[in-house]
Every structure is written in structure tokens, then in C-alpha cells.
Amino acid sequence: MSSNRATHPPDHPATFSCYPAIPPPIRLSLVNTGEHACPYLPGRMSSNRAFWAEQIPPEVYHAFMDAGFRRSGKFVYQPVCRGCRQCISIRVPVKEFRASKSQRRCLRRNDDLRVAIGPPEPDAERFALYQKYVTQWHGKKPADDPEDPYESFCSFLYESPVDTVEYQYRDQGGRLIGVGICDLSPQSLSSVYFYHDPDESHRSLGTFSALREIGDCIDRGIPYYYLGYWVDQCTTMDYKSSYKPHQILHPDGIWRNRGAD
């Protein structure tokens, strides 16, 4: 069983120098957020250790991901919930990845799609697809967002402190049916978010997008594909453990292989 030790930032909210091998040192200030309802487990409360960043060098951000951090817009965070460690960072070592039979069927089912990779650029077409996705797939209502919906969409997905790419998925008629946002570094491709047309659920576009992104890692020579957090007790997170073999980050800071069978 292989393992890799993560490089952890100091466990306190004080200003610190992370990844000191890069001159000059990057100085950030970590803060603990207040408690709020857990987005994954009903009846639970969650809190984060976080910082806001305008720009982060790719290798520095990779070090944070390696230590269990994620980002939402320019907000970089790590769950630090009291009495709970259910949010587990998960990644795929792409050279070892082997698609399952169902995943291979998914690839064949979507071989008619056109995939374009480019810089993330919000527009009316993407926003309409996103609104349809969050409304029909997640049951979110416009009134649930206190901010301007388009401004919230842009800040959530299209403002990034790191190198970010966008995957567009279109059918043969040119209709946009899926968009994936990923962060890119020489060591990793990290899936930030994927939204799609709920009317195309028969395609299993979430699975297809992850497989396509893993394939892109192989083409680029990127060793790891990060899937974010896996929560064992959250059924909507089950799909993340289906990409095998995968590694999870343990509390001791070591990534260990899991799911190789």
C-alpha cells in the first residue's frame, strides 16, 4: 500500500508562511468561520478554517489541497467541525486508474458529445444552464439566493485565485449540456464544480465529465485528479468512491490507497 505525507499548514489562525521553498514566502491569515448548517449531513453543524486570496501560485495551492483544503470562488477552506471528521479529501492516482464496466459504458454512451477545453468565461448560455441545474437537480429556488443570481454565479464559479480551466460539453446540434470547472497545476487537476442539463440524466454526465477529466490528466502527464470531499454517510457523495483505485487523506496527514479491489 503506497502512501504520501501531506504538507500541512500550521493549525492556527495566525499569519504564517506556507510553502517556504518559493521565494518570497506567501503570507496568509487563516480564520475560523462561524458554525452553519452542514450541507452534507442533516442536523449537523459545520465550520471551516479559511482564508481569502486574490492569487495563489499553482504549486502553493496544490500544497493546500494536499493538506485537505478546497476552494469556492476566492474562498479557500478546510472543514474543522467539532466532533466530526466525515469530510475526507479524495483523489485518484491517474496512472493506476482503471475504468469499471459501467464507466466504460458511460464513455461509449457519450462518444457523440463535443468537448472543448478553455478559460472559464461566464455568459448568458452558461448561466441559463446553471439556473436550470440548481433549480431542477438540487431543488434550489431563486429566493434562496440573497444576492444577485448572476453575480453569485460568477463569484462562485468564475472568480478564481488559481489557474482554472473549463470543460464544455455539447451535443451534435451544438447545444450546451454540461460545464465542468477545474483547477490546474503541474501536479493535479481538481474538480471544482460540474453543472449539466437535468433533461440529459440518461447520459450520466457527472460520471462522464470525471472520466473525461481523468483522461485529460493522462494526456497532460498530471499525476492526481482531486474529487474534493467524500462523505461516507452522504449518499450524494457515493459516486466519488467509484473511481478506483483512489486515495484518501488520513488524519495523520498521509494519503493512503483505498478501493484497489
TrEMBL record:
State the organism of origin. Humisphaera borealis
Task: State the compartments where it is located.
Answer: Cytoplasm
Q: Name one GO biological process term.
A: ubiquitin-dependent protein catabolic process via the N-end rule pathway
Q: Which reaction does it catalyse?
A: N-terminal L-aspartyl-[protein] + L-leucyl-tRNA(Leu) = N-terminal L-leucyl-L-aspartyl-[protein] + tRNA(Leu) + H(+); N-terminal L-glutamyl-[protein] + L-leucyl-tRNA(Leu) = N-terminal L-leucyl-L-glutamyl-[protein] + tRNA(Leu) + H(+)
**One MF annotation (Gene Ontology) recorded for this entry:** arginyl-tRNA--protein transferase activity
Give the keywords, sorted. Acyltransferase, Cytoplasm, Transferase
- UniProt keyword annotation of Transport present: no
Protein name per its UniProtKB record = Aspartate/glutamate leucyltransferase
